[in-house]
User: Which sequence fits this backbone?
């Protein structure tokens, strides 16, 4: 909660097999300091998760 992420690439959160995930009150700032390199271009990637809340 209430974090600032400054990133040049897309992925911020990856979760797998989680129950009860809250991602809220965070600020995501994207810059172009470096060329994106990660093959995953999803901001959030959730696999087999339950009870997830993603909000501002």
Assistant:
């Amino acid at each position: 909660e209430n974090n600032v992420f400054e990133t040049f690439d897309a992925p911020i959160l990856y979760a797998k097999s989680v129950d009860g995930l809250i991602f809220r009150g965070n600020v995501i700032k994207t810059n172009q300091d470096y060329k994106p390199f990660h093959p995953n271009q999803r901001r959030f990637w959730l696999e087999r998760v339950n009870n997830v809340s993603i909000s501002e």
